Every structure is written in structure tokens, then in C-alpha cells.
Amino acid sequence: MCAGFSLGEYTALVYANVMSFEDGLKLVKARAEAMDAAAKNANASMASISGVDDPTLLQLIGQATAEFGGDKKAYIANYMFPEGRTCSGDVQVLKKLCELVQGMGQGKSGKMVNVSGAFHTPYMQPAAEALAKKIDETPMEMPTLNVVSNVTGVYFYSVEEIRTLLKRQLVEPVRWEQSMEEVTKPFHFHTAYIETGPGKQLKAMMRRIDQEAWGKMTVLED
Prior knowledge:
single chain; alpha/beta; Malonyl-Coenzyme A Acyl Carrier Protein, domain 2; Alpha-Beta Plaits; 5-stranded mixed β-sheet
């Protein structure tokens, strides 16, 4: 099986022979351009939050949002590991959210991330609409090995679903924690996990998701 975080999902789909390498590059380029254009329409960013359970985090997001009102919103954008989330939305709301999290005391962390868009939230709806036609026009086949969806946290089961979920991926959270819970289920009998690409972030997250799987994980470095 294979999986990719956000943009990496396209890499996983190419690796699983869903689309050609060339078509994958074209889609990634179109995705980047669409997201960049959407990001310019709002004063938005992302924030890294840790040490807070989901019900409490949602409550804090609601509290921060209520302070500003109007169309200023924030959402959970990435489910990375237990009590490790990235939130996306209006800059003012996110700064207030970080302030509220920090105010909860030791073990709680809220920090702004240096990006210019509210990725994986409804703020990216214009990007999803712009990318939809490109996705529909790209030739795709069923994967030759299982690929886990960012949106659902389980395996894709049809080409139609792949197209639908790639569109949704831009406006919905990346459920990486749930995806790794799926691939590490005992009945899969996986004996090794390999992280490719820059950095060691996925292995670091796996350590907080499944200690046994983390011990079986190798990072391929240049």
C-alpha cells in the first residue's frame, strides 16, 4: 500500500499507476496555481496546535471565531497525530486561537505557520472549482496497489472516487492520523514502512500514532 500527505497523495497515485508521471506533474502544477490564486483572495494562514483534544480545540476555534464574526473563520486542516493538529483560516482568528491555546498552560502549544493560505478548508473552494476540470480530463486507472485517501482515511475503491476525493482534498482536512491507523491494523501484516521525500516528518508523526509501526519505519534520504 502507499499514502501521501496532501500534495504527496498525487505522488502516491502516480506510484500506484493511477496516472502517468507526466499527467501527475501537470495536475500538481494546476493545483499549485489554483491554490495560489485562491490564497490571494483572503488574509489567511495556518497554525500548529498540540496538546489539545479535538472537542476542546473545536470549542476554542468557535470562541476565537465569535470574537471577530463575519466571514472570518478557522478550521482543523490536518489531523497529524493524537492531539496534534494544524488549523487554517483567517489570520486574526488563528492568532486568537493560538493565544487561547497558550493560555491553557503547560503542555499546550499554538504557533502560527509561515504560509499564505488557509489550505484544506472551504477557503480553497475557488481552487477546487478551478482544478475540477483538470482532474476530470486526466486519464486514470485503478491503482495497482492500495492507496489511502487523505479525505476518508481509508483506501480508494474506484477511479470515480479518486477524482471526487482529489477535488474534496483541497477543501477538507488531511486525515493522516486516521490513515496511519488504517494501514497499521494488524490484519494487514505489514513488516516495514518506508518514508520517501524530504525530511522525516512522517516518521516523527508515526511515533505518536503507533510505536510498533514507528519501530519498523525507515526514511530514505538523498
